[in-house]
# Entry
Amino acid sequence: MSTSTEVRKEIRKAKKRGWTVTQNKKTNHYTLTWKNKGRVTASCSPSNAMGVKNFLADMRRVEKNFT
# Structure
């Protein structure tokens, strides 16, 4: 599975958990907002697999700090 597929899959899961998602078509980045407080930015095509793991860790941190 490619990393862009993984990112899109995780973004779909995030929407179900309550994240608001916007996409910048120019830069191909997603901005996820947690309850209008915390923000996380994700690239649709990260350069390596750690990019996906870091994105997920950032989401967990925001959920924990702004709940």
Remarks:
- The beta strands are 19-24, 29-34, 38-43.
- Residues 3-65 form one domain.
- Helices lie at 3-17, 49-65.
